[in-house]
Amino acid sequence: MKRIIALGLLFAFLPAAHADLAAGKRKAEACAACHGADGNSVIAQFPVLAGQTARYLYLQLKDFKESRRSEPTMAPTVAKLSTQDMLDLSEHFAAQKPKPIAFRPDAARVARGKKKADEVLCTMCHLGGFSGQNEIPRVAGQHPEYVIKQLKAFKARTRTNDAGSMTSVAQTITEQDIEDLAHYISSLD
């Protein structure tokens, strides 16, 4: 019982990590060139950050910083971020509203992509509508080029910061499946 009380007191005096949305907005100015001022990237090679969960964004920034995820354009930016910076940025982008991307999906590919997504149970993790949850990203409405790049990276095992889930699924899909999934996912709101 004494240990429980001692642990409770210890945790009561630890500073709580919390994000500052105003600071996040200021810090996000450096991200705007690639990800857009409000996290809605118009450049197809860069992901839409708006509407992602703060937890997912924080973990990705942390993985970039600790070299568990690699992207040459991110390396110099994350190198100088503190934990507080990452929390602030994550909360800022999570609070933004995703906007539709400029993409015309092919109906046949969308149908095949939906069928493949159902087959490999994508919604078990990404949820219905591919809205994401906790550490699982929102992929609905993401740029198809970005989706393709990430699925290929998981398949090639050059991106492995997923605890094996996406890497495992990616081994079961073909190049055509990747293209079809990208059309389907990118067509979602």
Summarize the structure in words.
With 189 residues, the protein is mainly alpha-helical. Helices cover 53% and strands 0% of the residues. It contains eleven helices and no strands. It has helices at residues 2-13, 21-27, 32-35, 54-65, 75-79, 83-94, 107-119, 123-126, 144-156, 165-170, 175-187. Helix 2 crosses helix 6 (83-94) and helix 9 runs antiparallel to helix 11. The chain is globular. Mean pLDDT is 92; it is low at 1-16.
The dominant shape is: globular
The total strand number stands at 0
Helix content: 40-55%
Largest sheet: none
Distance between the amino and carboxyl termini: 51 Å
Look at the structure and give the mean pLDDT: 92
Helix and strand element order: HHHHHHHHHHH
Strand content: under 5%
Structural class: mainly alpha
**Gyration radius over CA:** 18 Å
Stretches with pLDDT under 50, minimum 5 residues = 1-16
| Annotation field: number of helices | 11
What keyword list fits this structure?
single chain, 189 residues, mainly alpha, 11 helices, globular, disordered N terminus
Brief overview:
With 189 residues, this protein is an all-alpha fold. It has helices spanning 2-13, 21-27, 32-35, 54-65, 75-79, 83-94, 107-119, 123-126, 144-156, 165-170, 175-187.
Helices and strands in order:
Layout: H1 2-13, H2 21-27, H3 32-35, H4 54-65, H5 75-79, H6 83-94, H7 107-119, H8 123-126, H9 144-156, H10 165-170, H11 175-187
